[in-house]
From TrEMBL:
Domain of life: Bacteria
Pfam family name, one: AAA
Residue stretches making up the AAA+ ATPase domain: 32-188
SUPFAM superfamilies (alphabetical): P-loop containing nucleoside triphosphate hydrolases
Entry's Gene Ontology molecular function annotations: ATP binding; ATP hydrolysis activity
Coiled coil: none
CDD domains: AAA
Organism: Butyrivibrio hungatei DSM 14810
Listed name of the protein: ATPase family associated with various cellular activities (AAA)
Length: 500
């Protein structure tokens, strides 16, 4: 299955393992909760998926790469204890707490959440001395003499032998005690995540054209070369930063993230072309309804060029859709805090509110109980509440006027947000008009393939769907219905052809 399907399987398994009955006991006893084993190529997002699941379920996460551990750090150090058996004293060997089990208890202490995931990566690459210990752990959930706390689910991950020479095969005894999920690389599944994560548009457009370069691991006379999903995402981050700083993006940079000379060079060349298309076709002008005059040249251009233009258009819109979601989340926090303060009988102090919010957020971030995006939203909200507090100190006084001023301040922000929503709605409508005017074919039964590609991309991305669902867009609905109708017409045409 692909990484998205695997995520759903793991998430459902965790939910099932954590379900309790009316007596407060787990429906599936802890000893019967099979550890999950994810098997798939490196760099496809197994660790990122664990973080997403933990944040979505509001549980803890402790991650370890097991190959970094020795037997001593995994099970603890031996110590001599005195025990009494049958009235006689004996010296016995016990073990200090495992570093891994200790980390789980530390996470529980920090987060105050007793349920979570213990994720052990590269499980099938353990050393010879640690292998029996890992088998014991998978069977009995203990390292040495210390048991994993109830409520923590074991998820492990490993790479198939073709990707790692140090891999050891699990025997049937071990495999019969785990739930194995095999994962394949899948660009379409990753693309859905990539849109949500804000991966640079040049990467998405390039991979749409050359999907075969999404994931590649090769070994030849020149050694091993590889390109992974992790590499593309990390490259995206540095491209965005370099663009802000005005630093060139070239093959010297791409080859640091894409460990395949041909693909690194090819993408560097494409990025330069993508950047030139952006300057040539003036995407911001298209969003404002000012379309290029020479539509014939665009219509007759290569398919790769058309995909690049659609990619640029989609990328700009996605930035606005993500900003919409961020603004909405921030505004919701502000509304709730002002409403809460309005109901207080004590003196209103927004500065103190911001301080309390920051302390709570710092604690959650320290315990890794919040996603990066959620943390960003809450820090923006805290910053704005501090800004409001400073404005109040200069321009308002008295409990009643403080709330009145805060409400007025909030309303002004909401008016500005609604104006941005209207602008984004207009940009989306203009984009549909541009694609239709430039690539539309009134004689085609199924509509232009460019329109199909454009609306499919919007329909498969989280933030674009959220925007349309929340605010509506007549052009999106109309073209979506038209494409569905045209698909039905094509089906009927094919049926008639078969019958006659």
């Amino acid at each position: 299955m692909n990484i998205d399907e695997a995520k759903n399987e793991v998430k459902n398994a965790v939910r099932a393992y954590l379900l309790k009955d009316e007596a407060g006991q787990y429906e599936i006893p802890v000893e019967k909760q099979r550890p999950i084993l994810l098997m798939g190529p490196p760099g496809i997002g197994k660790t990122a998926v664990m973080e997403q699941i933990a944040h979505e379920l509001g549980i803890g996460l402790v991650s370890y790469t097991i190959t970094h551990h020795t037997r001593q750090s995994a099970i603890g150090l031996p110590k001599i204890s005195e025990k009494s058996y049958g009235g006689k004293e004996y010296s016995v060997t016990e073990y200090t707490m495992s570093e891994i089990i200790g980390a789980v208890y530390e996470q529980i202490e920090k987060s105050k959440v007793k349920e979570g995931i213990l994720f052990l990566d590269e499980i099938n690459c353990v050393s010879e001395t640690l292998a029996p210990t890992m088998l014991q752990f998978l069977q009995y959930k203990t390292f040495g003499s210390h048991k994993l706390p109830e409520g923590y689910i074991i998820v492990t991950a490993g790479n198939p032998p073709q990707y790692n020479k140090s891999v050891r095969d699990f025997d049937i005894v071990t495999l019969d005690r785990v739930r194995q999920i095999n994962i394949d690389e899948d660009f379409d599944a990753w693309k859905e995540y990539a849109y949500k994560a804000g991966v640079h548009g040049s990467i998405l457009s390039y991979l749409e054209i050359k999907k075969e370069n999404f994931y590649s691991i090769k070994t030849d006379v020149n050694g091993r070369s590889f390109v992974t999903a992790r590499g593309w995402e990390d490259l995206s981050r540095i491209i965005k930063v370099n663009e802000k700083l005005g630093i060139e993006v070239n093959e010297n940079l791409t080859s640091q993230y894409l460990q395949n000379t041909e693909i690194a060079r090819d993408f560097a060349d494409y990025y330069e072309l993508y950047r030139r298309y952006n300057e040539l076709y003036k995407i911001p002008d298209i969003l404002e309804g000012r379309f290029p005059e020479n539509k014939e040249a665009l219509r007759n251009g290569s398919f790769d060029e058309k995909l690049s233009i659609l990619g640029l258009l989609t990328d700009k819109l996605m930035d606005e859709f993500r900003d919409y979601a961020k603004d909405q989340a921030v505004q919701k926090i502000l509304f709730e805090k002002i409403k809460e303060m309005a109901s207080e009988s004590d003196v209103v102090d927004f500065g103190a509110v911001a301080g309390d919010m920051e302390s709570a957020l710092d604690a959650e971030a320290e315990a890794d109980m919040i996603s990066r995006d959620d943390e960003k939203v809450r820090r923006l909200a805290i910053s704005l509440i501090r800004e409001l507090s400073e404005l109040l100190e200069r321009e308002a006084s008295g409990g009643s006027s403080v709330i009145d001023y805060a409400k007025k301040w909030f309303t002004e922000r909401e008016d500005a947000r609604q104006a941005r929503i209207k602008a984004t709605d207009t940009h989306l409508t203009h984009s549909f008009e541009f694609v239709e005017e430039t690539f539309g074919n009134p004689e085609s039964l199924t509509g232009s393939q460019e329109m199909v590609i454009f609306i499919t991309e919007l329909s498969n991305a989280y933030y674009s769907l959220k925007f349309v669902k929340d605010t509506g867009n007549e052009a999106y609905y109309n073209y979506n219905k038209l494409l569905l109708l045209n698909d039905r017409k094509q089906e009927l045409r094919n049926l008639v052809y078969e019958l006659t």
